[in-house]
Design brief:
The complex is a heterodimer of chains A (198) and B (165). With 198 residues, chain A is of the alpha+beta class. Chain A is built from six helices and six strands; from the N terminus they run H-E-E-H-H-H-E-E-E-E-H-H. In chain A, strand 5 and strand 6 form a beta hairpin. Chain B has 165 residues and is an alpha/beta fold. Chain B has one domain: Rossmann fold (3-Layer(aba) Sandwich). Chain B is globular. The chains are: A alpha+beta (198), B alpha/beta (165).
Chain lengths: 198, 165
């Protein structure tokens, strides 16, 4: 593949390729920088900032990357997604990859194309997990008055005085009221599905 | 100007992003939008006459789907542990993350933000449990990202502790 074709591929993938040297980074390739990088870094650079001040998460990733380049050498190490804000105030997810080859150290950065899908899946998964937690909590609350009612039922077997009878009725009414409140608060479940026994 | 890296740590859904948003932009949204990556915000505060820039690393929540990478904590001058008072399990997660943080960042100051103070009637974490934690030397602030109560106090308490350290 010619250098021009390779540059076109990098450009299409919105890659920024930098080489890690002892004094910092130099850009590889003479293809136009991807618009996202211009909006996030180049326009901010006019204010006299560095790569790690615009992408603070790189500071942490580069520690891992330096260790990787030193100990492993050839191969690659990817970061998790991190958010950057561009000159229009829009957020985008970026992923960085450290690549080692033939003794040279490269840092690749590009928008994380899988981010929206991952965000959507995790959003649903976490909402479901939180809903599960809420249901467990409600079941635990339900068990308390049920246990008390069971104790009262056992107590009713003994012949009561009029005063004890009144106290029992008040306690039963209180537990029934609590049960009604808890049952009333029970969610209807996702997509309107009823949680009542069928 | 002095800069201090502060990490936000806690279980999923406890309100880390909401606390940052309230502190930095005075904004609260009641729509739950899960964090997946890491987002860094900055806010300059003043302690005495000195301006200090807090570099706030809002790290996604710890749960069955994602674990916090210890490397994010490297270089942190302090961290805000966040738990949700209505969910006991989130306090257990905060305790576990505190150990992770201490292993990665060393013995740097931290504050436990017991969030969702506006829902105190639904809290599973009682005063007795919090007293027990406080007796271990933890600094605890009840916060509400919704009302803003305690938010400034939590961050400022942490800032003062970082400067004193």
């Amino acid at each position: 593949m010619s250098n021009a074709a390779l540059a076109d591929v990098c450009s299409a993938l919105e890659f920024v390729v930098l080489e890690r040297l002892d004094g910092g980074f130099v850009r590889m390739g003479d293809y136009p920088l991807p618009p996202w990088f211009v909006r996030v870094f180049i326009q901010a650079q006019n204010e006299g900032v560095t790569l790690t001040s615009v992408f603070p998460v790189l500071d942490s990733f580069l520690s891992d990357a330096d260790q990787f380049w030193t100990s492993v050498g050839d191969g690659r190490l990817s970061s998790e997604s991190f958010m950057a804000t561009d000159s229009r105030g829009e957020e985008l997810a970026i992923v960085a990859t450290a690549v080692g080859t033939r003794g040279r150290r490269f840092l690749l950065m590009q928008p994380d194309a899988s981010f929206p899908e991952r965000q959507r899946v995790l959003q649903v998964a976490r909402e479901q997990a939180l809903e599960h937690e809420r249901l467990v909590k409600q079941i635990q609350e339900l068990r308390k008055p049920i246990a008390s009612l069971a104790a009262l039922a056992a107590d009713l077997a003994a012949p009561p005085s009029a005063e004890a009878q009144r106290a029992r009725i008040e306690r039963i009414a209180s537990h029934v009221s609590t049960l009604q409140r808890i049952v009333g608060e029970l969610p209807q479940g996702p997509r309107g599905a009823s949680l009542k026994p069928r | 100007m002095i800069q201090k890296k502060v990490c936000m740590l806690g279980a999923t859904g406890v309100g880390k992003t909401s606390l940052v948003s309230r502190f930095v932009s005075s904004i609260f949204s009641d729509k739950y939008m899960t964090s997946v990556g890491v987002k860094v915000d900055k806010k300059t505060v003043t302690v005495g006459e000195d301006p200090i820039t807090l570099v706030l690393w809002d790290i996604y929540g710890e749960d069955a789907f994602q674990s916090v990478r210890a490397s994010y904590l490297r270089g942190a001058a302090g961290y805000l542990l966040v738990a949700d008072g209505t969910r006991q399990l989130t306090l257990d997660t905060a305790r576990s993350l505190q150990k992770t943080a201490e292993g990665a960042a060393g013995r740097v100051p931290f504050v436990l933000a017991m969030n969702k103070a506006d829902l105190v009637a639904e809290w599973q974490v009682d005063d007795k449990a919090l007293w027990k934690i406080a007796e271990e030397g933890w600094s605890i602030v009840r916060t509400s990202a919704l009302t803003g109560a305690g938010v400034e106090e939590a961050f400022m308490k942490l800032t003062r502790a970082m400067l004193a350290g």
